[in-house]
Design goal:
The chain is of the alpha/beta class. It folds into two domains: 276 residues, Putative cyclase (Glucose Oxidase, domain 1, 3-Layer(bba) Sandwich), CATH 3.50.30.50; 30 residues, no CATH class. The chain has ten helices and 15 strands. It is globular and about 70 Å long. The model has no long low-confidence stretch (mean pLDDT 98). One of its GO terms (biological process) is L-tryptophan catabolic process to kynurenine. This is Cyclase.
Length: 320
Amino acid sequence: MDRTDPEAAIAAAAKRCSNWGRWGADDVLGTLNFLDDTKRREGAALVRRGASFSLAQRFDADGPQKGWRRRTNPVHTMLDTGLDAERGTQGFPHGIGGADDVVFLPLQASTQWDGLGHIFDHGVAWNGRRAGDVVTSEGDRVTGIETASGRIAGRGVLLDAGRALGTDGELPDGFAITVAHLEETIAAQGETARVGRGDVLLVRTGRLARARREGWGDYAGGPAPGLSFTTAEWLHDTEIAAIATDTWGFEVRPNEFDDAFQPLHQVAIPHIGLYLGEMWDLDALAADCAADGRYEFWLTADPLPVTGAVGAPVAPIAVK
């Protein structure tokens, strides 16, 4: 990999990893096509103990966002309160009262999915469509996040790279997780960590654990461990349905090229058609997996179906 030529590396990887046309010219699901009813039954059969784990960070004002590209933390405001009910100002009969509220948030403020309309390559979106024909001022009119509604539920697999490769369960910032690292982690975890067609893969780096301990700092957009650009073919060839990490940006930061911004996104989303999850909380699940030696589980991770959105909040639940 020539660090000085990201353009050529991206073009070569895009050509090798393209899924354009694989599911027809009208496809809007990308790799979610791998997650079929058979895979859902396989995932459901993994539930033994009934132990459940929330994989979502909180959505509140004390979050990681710092305003980059107008991404802020959620703003929660009450529209009606208990005080209004006490004072009888709500206009309801026979003494009934209630509370109501509203929230403003960028759809990628916390735990979320990147949809297929989120990233383009030279003005081209998933499946070879013109970016301007896909996402307009009205939103993503083709591959909006609502197209994934009800689909992301099946076999989840955790690769705890932080424990397998790091120190005290954490990888340092700038650590690029290669295919060799992924395979080393699978080998260390055993048979239940095998990764294949239709799986939803979760990769824990430990970056969120460090943010909890030290404060958010540059968690959003700053240096972080993550997937190496060189994993593009592995992500394509394993035929996973989706992948999520405990970091802001999924791939290693700083990126591996001298002058680049999120080059793995540029291949994974518009060419592979791969859903990417970011800022997932994998710590409690990882601790349980390490304790019982099982790294596979039932996972449900439906995005909030905001019509035309290019990304959406998610509250994933893993059940073992």
